[in-house]
Design a protein that fits this description.
mainly alpha; about 0% strand; about 90 residues; single chain; 4 helices; 2 domains
Length: about 90
Amino acid sequence: MVFPFFKKINTPALCRWLLVLTALAGAGVRVAVYLQNRSFFLDEANLARNIAERSLGDLTQPLHYEQFAPLVFLWETGSLSEGTILPLWV
């Protein structure tokens, strides 16, 4: 048995409205985060903290703060920021 309510729904129009609402909600969230003017997001800050607190050899161990990154990337970033005047955000 099909309920009479479902016969009246225009499915393509409903899908379009849901798509538009989802896109607007996503854009609103992105604008809100942009207006907060944060230089690092939480994941990037935790990864930077791991790189700053560890030596190149220690970067082969599991990272703290539930972070994962490729070893070559960690070594490259760690070697650029260790012992140089370059800031950590290189």
